[in-house]
Amino acid sequence: MLCRYIVQNEGMATNDDTNITRVLFCGPYFPPSHIYTKEYLQNYPFIQVDDVPLADVPKCIGNYHLCVVKSMQLNSNVISRAKRMKLIIQYGVGLEGHCQFICPFPINLELFLVVIYMCFFFLNRYLCAFRYTFYNALLILLLLKLITFPYLSLHKGVDIDAATNCGIKVARIPGDVTGNAASCAEMAIYLMLGLLRKQNEMQIAVKQKKLGEPIGETLLGKTVYIMGFGNIGVHLAKRLRPFGVKIIATKRSWASHTDVSSQSNALPVENGIIDDLVDEKGIHEDSHKFASKANIVVCCLILNKETVGIVNRSFISSMKEGSLLVNIARGGILDYEAVAHYLECGHLGGLGIDVAWTEPFNPDDPILKFNNVIITPHVAGVTKHSYRSMAKVVGDVALQLHAGTPLTGIEFVN
């Protein structure tokens, strides 16, 4: 059954194979991405669009010219099989896939398990007559890589170096031109308001036929810390201004900021810096100081080795007691154990997340027992406007790839 459409076509019409440009969408998640792209390209029979189950991608990827990665993790092994591939693109801006926390010490998972194996072996070799049963079972599982530690490794979505070595370009779709950044900014405000007005408690009150409770809070007068002032951060600040809030923000370098300045609805820019949107600017090293000033912290950071787990115990403890934490970036930015701890003790006033540590998120996860937690299923950027805009970009790129013309509308990362 694997990739039966491609197998049949290769067996039936190999002479026409060079006249077809094949587009691969990895996995079933975010279905509007491939549905809208298929609709956009329906009048171009020489472009074939397929959505393939994640487990089947390694076996099929060699038949495709363009890969839309979505949440798939494309490592060097998978990429090495993509013999016809010209371009790997993300349906959006993130190329890191679904990440997990890295180990706080610099060793990989396999080495960590080997060390544990050896230590326990030598410590207990004289204490247990059946020691080999346990240790050999552990070693077998290690070799088969059936043991996973959710908070010990960071998995990249796309191995960009491997793609580069194979002559494959890697790109993403800028969020400011498709409406993706605007959609994410709106979701951040939705989560803020839901926490402030106690959305979950309101639902309970409705079911209990109560009126006039719970009592909530307003955005008016609050200080909002935007952690990562890229495209999403800019659009968020623009939309927050009318709420009467104080906006503070950090980013790596303010001098390099030129976001959305070329658009017709561009924000006011002076000398490359967004003007009149931020009351206080800082760099990433100021994050703890800024967190201590804010009533609401919104994470808009790109996930990489510097930012993974950056919202940890130290960071959350620096936040005001009762302040709210919102994450619309990537789940791996938040340290799960730290978030759970500060929700439990009451220091964290609420958590609103559109992205989780593992996705799809476990609906029985203990963190969902708190009434002041709101989670949405990674839909911040999933709107008809943004997805149809991105479908047009992917469709146009497929047509350009087929015609052999320069690829436009995307941002290359290699």
From TrEMBL:
User: What range does the record give for the signal peptide?
Assistant: none
Give the residue spans that cross the bilayer.
Answer: 105-123, 135-154
Molecular function terms, GO-annotated: NAD binding; phosphoglycerate dehydrogenase activity
Record keywords, A-Z: Membrane, Oxidoreductase, Transmembrane, Transmembrane helix
Establish whether keyword Protein transport is in the entry.
no
Q: Does the keyword Cell wall biogenesis/degradation apply?
A: no
D-isomer specific 2-hydroxyacid dehydrogenase NAD-binding domain ranges (all copies): 190-380
PANTHER family, alphabetically? D-ISOMER SPECIFIC 2-HYDROXYACID DEHYDROGENASE FAMILY PROTEIN, FORMATE DEHYDROGENASE 1
Q: What is this protein called?
A: D-isomer specific 2-hydroxyacid dehydrogenase NAD-binding domain-containing protein
